[in-house]
Structure formats: C-alpha cells, structure tokens
Amino acid sequence: MTDRRPFLYDAHVALGAKIVPFGGWEMPLQYATGTVGEHLACRNDAVVFDVSHLGTVRCDGPGMFDVLQETLTNDLRKVEPGRAQYTHLLNHDGFVVDDIIVWWVGDNEFDVMPNASNTSGVTEALPGVDVTGERCILAIQGPNARAKVAAVDQRFADVGRFRVTRFDYEGVEVRVAGTGYTGEEGLEIAVPNEAAEALLAKLVDADITPAGLGARDTLRLEAALPLYGHELTLSSTTLEAKLGWVLGWDKETFRGRKAVEDERDRGPSRLLTGLIVEGRQPLRDGGDVLIDGTNVGTLSSGNFSPVLQCGIGMGLLRGAPDVNTPATVALRGREISATITPLPFVRKAK
To answer: How far apart are CA 69 and CA 79, in angstroms?
Structure first.
C-alpha cells in the first residue's frame, strides 16, 4: 500500500525537506539545517514540526465522557473542559494498544489523538469520527516557542501547558493545545487544511526553524518520552514503562484493569531503564543489555544525544539495576560499555 502524503507535502519539499516513510506516511525527516541542528534549535530556541500523521478521532455527543472514562486508563475527573490529558488504551490483557492525548474541547466534545499507525484501533474502541484528513497539526516547541509564535497571533502564545482552546483564525476554526513531545515548552495547532500552508509560512517567517522526525525522535529520547512500537507495545505494559500515574485507580473501571491490577500486586517483571556511554558511539534499539554477563533485556530506543554528546538508550530491563551499575550493550557484533543512568537524560530549558 502506498504511504499517505501529508497535506503540506509540497510545502515541505519547497523548504528542502528529506522525505521518508513513517507510520504509513511520507514525512519530513530533516531539512537543510540537519537533524542535529534542528534538535539544538529546539533545545535553545524554537522549531516547528508537522505532525499531521498523528490521528484525530473526534468524539462528540451526550455520554461521550462516560465512554472515554470507561475505556481509557486515566481519570478524566482530574481535568475539565479546556484541558488535555495523557492516557493509555489497553487491551483486555493489560498490554498497551496506544498512548494517547485527549483534548477536552467542550462539554461533550473530545479530540482523541492516537499515534499514526493506531488510528483504526482507536476508532474500533471508541464511537468517534476520524477527521485526520481534514486538518494539519503543527507543533511549535522550544524555550522561545511562545515568544516567537506571538508574532503570528498572541492567542497561540497564551495557551497554557496542557490547556486547550479554539478560536477563529484567518476565517477558520483552529484548535490549540499546550502539548508536545520534545521535553520543551510549546503548543500544537490543529488547523484546517485550507489554512495550513499559509500558517506554516508565517511560522517560518517568524524565525521558527522547520524540524523533521529525526530531531523529534532524538528530542523525545533525551527527555525519556516513550514511543509507541518501542517502549510501549502490545507486549509491554504501562507499569513497565513507569507510567503508573496514567492509571485511574480511583474510577470504577477501564479496559484491561483486572490484568493491570494483577501486575501491580505482583510487581512488574521489567522496568524502563536508561543507559549512557562515555563516547560518541550511538546506542540502537535491539541491542542486548548485559550486567555481570547476564542478559537483562533489550534496548527499545537508542541514539546519539546532541546535548550530551554521547550515546544514550532506554530499555525494559529485568532486575531493576541500580543507577551507576556498569553494563554492556551487545550491538551488531560489538560490545559497548555503558552505565545505568537516571531518566530523563536531559531536562527542559529553564
């Protein structure tokens, strides 16, 4: 099957993007600045990503709160209309079908945001409408993101962290959330396709650097944010990923609750763990992690950290190894010395 092109495909090509397949889409990997340059621009200034490949399942109507509350793990009673919430969709065995951001737009109106390849799984679990093809999502991230986006429209900059709002912009309704996936401050704008190219051009004109999926991945890894298909899969759990705070134990039920309760009572068999190397050798997913010669798991993600200037990686490891424990990563016929390290690797700019 041919990968889908985002609505802004031609605009990305005009900006010099290198296009690669990702999650069933043809998406920008990097622009002329390059992945490392885009990464550092996000850590030190501001960048804009096109994340239109992510899904939007619009769940509107009476009773929708109850449906989401009974299906997804987090407790919507912790928030209110005008807020966003991170949550998980589990199967009945307690494994992760997807990790999701819910934008609570109005009283009975929710935009459920799944990962690119999982939108169909969410529409099967929830009575929503897939509106992914009708809008683009532009993520502006970095310590200067709000200051720079204010030059385009102050209302974008005014959206607080994990807040959600909507307003008329250039004759169309935009929905804006104070969310992102880089470990930095920022916001995400859902804009109808017909206004997306003009908005992207204004953001670039405001000296916001275009950034691709390469930088998005290295940024989320430095921030120790899980990626579906890596740290979160149909063979891993919320508790293994140290994300137990998204489990709404105070509500009556959610899908997979019994299995997760059993896991909680016995304790997860693996835990998300960080590793760091002294040199510039990047770690990669699939590398076996050994401690005292014993295989304790496999790296789920790994790369070179542009901020730390060394290799970093994460994996679901058995035995809960202590911080500063020496380890070896067996990768493509090589053995790389590493050390267990606290997560996240890099914290956001002050």
So the answer is: 12
- The residue ranges of every structural domain in the chain are 9-55+132-222, 269-341
Angstrom CA distances, 162 to 143, 179, 198, 213, 263, stand at 16, 6, 26, 22, 29
Residue 290, strand partner residues:
295, 328
Nearest one of 324, 335, 232, 330 to 275, comparing CA atoms: 324
Class of domain 9-55+132-222: alpha beta
Dihedral sign computed on CA atoms, order 76, 180, 275, 298: positive
87-146 tens-digit pLDDT:
999 999 999 999 999 999 999 999 999 998 888 889 999 999 999 999 999 999 999 999
- The encoded tokens of residue 67 equal 């449906």
Confirm if 31 and 214 have CB atoms less than 8 A apart. no
Query: Partners of 189 in the beta sheet?
Result: 138, 176
CA–chain centroid gap for 190, Å, is 16
Q: Judge whether residue 201 has pLDDT over 90.
A: yes
Rg (CA), the chain: 20
Contact present, 142 and 42 (Cβ < 8 Å) = yes
The amino acid at residue 255 is R
pLDDT attached to residue 23: 84
**Rounded Cα–Cα distance for residues 190 and 253 (Å):** 31
What's the pLDDT tens digit per position in 14-37? 999 999 998 889 999 999 999 999
Structure tokens at 9: 């495909």
Q: What is the pLDDT, as a whole number, of residue 349?
A: 66
Range list of H helices, the chain: 9-14, 35-44, 64-71, 119-125, 145-149, 154-157, 193-205, 213-222, 257-266
Domain 269-341 has CATH 2.40.30.110: yes
Q: Is the pTM of this model over 0.85?
A: yes
Residue 105 has phi, psi (to 5 degrees) of -80, -45
